[in-house]
Amino acid sequence: MKTRQITLKHLLIAGRKYIGLQFYPDKVVQALVKELPSPRWSEQYRMVFIPNTKENVQLIFRRFKGVAWVNGQYFFRTGGAKKGNPFPDMEAYRHRKLSEGYRPCPESYLEKLELKRYAMNTVRTYVGCFEAFINHFKDRELLEINELEIRTYLQQLIREGKSDSTVNQALNSIKFYYEVVEGMPNRFYEIERPHKKERLPEVLSQEQVLSMIRKTRNLKHRYIISLLYSAGLRRGSC
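The structure corresponding to this sequence follows.
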C-alpha cells in the first residue's frame, strides 16, 4: 500500500497567515481534512488551507497520526546562527540620521540578522536591498504585499539594467524578511530567480604571455609563468 503523505506549506492570503496542506487525492485523507477547522481551497496555490495557529499545527499531527505522514520540512525552519561568526555590529543602523520620509529597516529585521550572526558584508547587502524594497512600497503594510507585486518590483530592477547578482540579492533580502523574520518559509513559490549567465574564460594571447615573461625579472617567477603557459595549466589546477 502506498504511504499517504501531507506536506505543510506557509501561505499568506489577504494579509493573513494560513497552513497549506498538499496531498494526492485520497478519500481517507480528504475526509479527515474536512474535519479540520475552517478548511478552504486556494485556487492560486492549488491546495487546502486552514488558519495558522499553534493549536491547528498540533491538531494536524494528532489527526493524521497512523494515517498519513505529515511532511513539515517546508514548514518548520531549521538552522541557527552562523557558527564561528561574531555578532555583527548593528548599532550604526539603529542610530543613523535618516532623511525625512525614509522608511528604515524594521528592528525585527536587524535583530534577526544579529541573532543569526550574518557577516557584516551580508548585513550591508540585505539592509540596503530591503530598504530599497520597502521604500518602493513606502505606504504599504509589508504583509499586504503579494507575490505578483514583488515579481513586478524585481522585473523593474531588471529593466533598470541591474545585474543578475543584484536582483538575486534583492530577492534574498525580501525572502529573509518574510521567511525568517516573519517565520513563513517557502512563501514565494512562483518567483523565479534570474539565470546565472555563463561567461567564457578570458584567454591571453601568445604575445601577451611572452611580454609577461620578458618583463618578469625574478628568474623563479619567469620559470613558473613559462611552465604554466607551456603546460596549459589553469589557476584552479595549482
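The chain has three domains: 5-71, 91-181, 206-237.
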